[in-house]
Design brief:
Elements: E1 2-14, E2 19-28, E3 31-34, E4 40-54, E5 56-61, H1 74-77, E6 83-89, H2 97-105, E7 111-117, H3 138-148, E8 152-158, H4 161-164, H5 169-183, E9 187-190, H6 199-205, E10 211-212, E11 224-225, E12 228-229, H7 231-238, E13 242-243, H8 254-262, H9 287-296, H10 301-307, H11 310-315, E14 333-339, E15 345-346, E16 352-353, E17 357-365, E18 368-371, E19 378-380
Parallel strand pairs: 1-4, 5-6, 6-7, 7-8, 8-9, 9-10, 10-13
Antiparallel strand pairs: 1-2, 2-3, 4-14, 4-19, 11-12, 14-17, 15-16, 17-18
Helix pairs in contact: 3-5
């Protein structure tokens, strides 16, 4: 077999197939041509200390070139950090969906999908997106989803007090579920404060395939009490409700994550909730660093890799096109290295844990090298 590009690595890891060991991935055009067998290639890149993974998938962030107060350009902020696919949490609603499609989804090299905001204005206004109940327009949201097709994965229903203010969260969830019932789409759900609406009642409304984000918050919606995962949270997972990290500025606590993992409750997916305030941070707030924080919290490495590749690919309905290293899949690849001398890992409260951090060395999107100084490892044949 002859390929355009062959990437060799000390570890080739594919959680979807169970592969983990030295090897190489061959690329022809925008497809993975082979993971096994003899291959000759026009270019060979060698990363003897690197970890070659499917392109990383961030299930909750804010990719938006325009129109969102939280938005960051995904090709500038995410693609160079190893993320080849990202799901937007509500950056656009029914009113500004066409602009979002044109300026972000269609114009980006990064693969972008949208959890459309229940608010028809998305995140285009100051303040909470659902502070005005009339913005939660069921008919408009349904029409946008039907027009958007596969680019719109689901519905962003963040009913935290920051997002909905004084609006009754039960009303908003009823409207979000009405949209979901008519369109067959899942929810990306942000919980309301349990003292105002019991957590068990909220979780009971969610369905298999719905995703609860901000799962390791310390306040205001902890999923644990006295170091143990709450029974209603376990019952929701048993029914098929999924749990996502959504780190952000306020939603990742080392003590919460450590207690949950010790109690046998790791997250289904790891995400950054990366948005405009993170731009320019040193060290960068990115998916590899968020993964390293879960490792420091005790999550198994194999589970971490699955939570940013195979699992989100399945949740997005994009497997086997992405999220795995198999012949015929899209050639989205990320090479990471482990740095023991990286900056300390801190949670949103400033608590620090020792340990190293993954750093991106190379990003390949649809067969093209889009980030990384590949010249240091380039051997033409």
């Amino acid at each position: 077999m002859h390929a355009d590009l062959l990437i060799e690595a000390g570890r080739v890891v594919c959680p979807a197939t169970g592969r983990d060991g030295p090897g190489a991935v061959a690329i022809l055009g925008d497809r993975i041509a082979a993971v096994e067998g003899p291959v000759t290639a026009r270019r060979v890149l060698r990363f003897p200390e690197g970890i070659l993974l499917p392109g990383l998938i961030d299930l909750h962030a804010h990719p938006a070139v325009s129109g969102s107060k939280f938005g960051v350009a995904p090709d500038a902020a995410m693609l160079p950090r190893g993320v080849t696919t990202v799901l937007s949490q509500g950056d656009a609603g029914a009113d500004n969906w066409p602009d979002y499609l044109a300026t972000t989804i269609d114009a980006s090299r990064t693969r972008v999908r949208l959890a459309i905001n229940l608010s028809r204005r998305g995140e285009a206004m100051p303040g909470g997106c659902l502070e005005l109940a009339d913005d939660a327009d069921v008919d408009a949201c349904i029409a946008a989803i039907r027009a958007g097709g596969a680019a719109i994965w689901g519905i962003a229903a963040n009913v935290s007090s920051v997002a909905c203010g004084a609006t009754e969260p039960r009303l908003l969830v009823r409207r979000a579920l009405a949209v979901a019932a008519q369109t067959g789409r899942p929810l990306l759900y942000g919980l309301h404060q349990p003292e105002a609406w019991p957590l068990a009642e909220q979780l009971a409304l969610l369905r298999p395939g719905d995703v609860v984000t901000y799962c390791f918050r310390r306040v205001p919606t902890p999923l644990l009490a006295q170091g143990r995962v709450l029974p209603e949270v376990r019952a929701a997972r048993a029914r098929g409700v999924l749990f996502d990290v959504g780190h952000g500025m306020t939603s990742f606590s080392f003590p919460m994550a450590e207690a949950a993992i010790i109690d046998g409750f790791p997250p289904d997916t790891i995400s950054t909730d990366g948005y405009a305030r993170h731009v320019g941070q040193v060290p960068p707030h990115d998916l590899p660093r968020t993964m390293a924080k879960l490792r420091a919290a005790g999550m198994a490495e194999a589970a971490i890799f699955a939570a940013v590749t195979a699992h989100p690919a399945q949740i997005l309905g994009l497997a086997p096109e992405i999220g795995q290293l198999t012949a015929g899949a899209c050639a989205d690849l990320t090479v990471l290295s482990w740095r023991t001398d990286a900056a300390p890992l801190a949670d949103v409260d400033g608590l620090v844990r020792p340990g190293g951090c993954w750093e991106p060395l190379l990003t390949v999107r649809a067969g093209s090298i889009v980030a990384g100084d590949d010249r240091a490892w380039d051997d033409a044949e």
